[in-house]
Amino acid sequence: MLWTTIHIIEIILWIFMAGSVFYVLFFALASLLPSRRSSSETEKTNEARFSFLVLFPAYGEDRVIINSIENFLKQDYPADKFDITVISDHMTDETNEKLNRLPVKVLQPVFKKSSKAKALQFAMSHTEKVYDYVVILDADNIVHTDFLQRLDNSCRRGYQAIQCHRCAKNAENSIAMLDSVSEEINNTVFRKAHNRIGLSSALIGSGMCFAFAWFRNNVNHLSTAGEDRELEALLLQQRIFIRYEGHIHVFDEKVSNEENFQSQRLRWMSAQISCLLSMLPKAPKQIAAGNIDFVDKTIQQMLLPRSILLLGTAVMAVIMFAVATVWCAKWWILFALLCLAMFLAIPSAMRTRSIFSRITALPRLVLKMLNNIKRIDKSSKDFIHTTHDK
Questions:
Q1: Quick one: CA dihedral 15, 229, 158, 288, positive or negative?
Q2: Residue-wise pLDDT tens digits, 196-221
Q3: Given its phi and psi angles, is residue 382 left (phi above 0), alpha (psi -120 to 50 degrees) or beta?
Q4: From the CA atom positions of the chain, what is the Rg in Å?
Q5: Burial of 360 (0-12, 13-18, 19+ CB in 10 A)
Q6: This prediction's pTM
Q7: Rounded to whole angstroms, how far apart are CA atoms 58 and 91?
Q8: Other CB atoms closer than 10 Å to residue 207's CB: what's the count?
Q9: Does 375 have pLDDT greater than 60?
């Protein structure tokens, strides 16, 4: 009776993990499908058709914000076609003075509890001018000089929501390297592969572009620390397709120490649970309406983090081999399929020995993530700030 109970629990756990593994594997394989070259990638034009409002929410980002703004001001795009607004929250007077000397609008809100959602809402409430599109970047983001021109070309195709290719601008240690690899896997599975089979891309929090009218009408619906997931749910509920533009790069600073990694993952895990609880009650209606994008996004919120899956399947395989050898085969198969999926999802340029040698840091990071479980606040509306180390 005891062994039967253990076996049932073990099978249930395997099924639970297998759902996440097969989801990642399916989309890793889907990413290999050929793509149609979009006109936004092939069209070469210097004509500026659309106007952009570029928002930089900046919470205590004194170290990086000036460099990011100075970089963005180098855009090869007509100056009268874009404006920059910095939402300066808890930054020093010295930083604000430097910003005010630049051709940007500086807003200084005072929040009892800060959040990125509040910063975006504050910016839109203080914007009287009407634009065609709004772009959201993080305070540490760096872009190429043709960033807006490439976005303009993409907007010509009528997209109301665009996610650019966010990638690492630093990989100086094992944690930053693994974080950058993880982001590229996300880009492959949740963005590139989804678009390949006609589904919407996931958003990522920065490097996002929205039709100005839509964003202004919907930004006040944001209420949690997972504003990107909330925006995604709003778009999909309204059946607005999210386009992933892999050729438009936004360089982002990756976390490089364990404390920041833990804080960042806590914010993501809390946002995931909050988003799942928000979407589940709406799912039956969306299923009945045939809204596959919304259903897929709801399923995404149920997925286990890949690092936990990787360590969990390997540990279970070893335990089952020691306890009941006949039960371990399915765990080794699951572990192998997950490894295959992650290998396929990693861009070929990143499949180097130096990358895989950093995997020794993974167990420590997984323990940090498991530590976060007891700290998850499913209704958190507070912004958990990830500091920059340099």
A1: positive
A2: 999 999 999 999 999 999 999 999 99
A3: beta
A4: 22
A5: exposed
A6: 0.88
A7: 8
A8: 26
A9: no
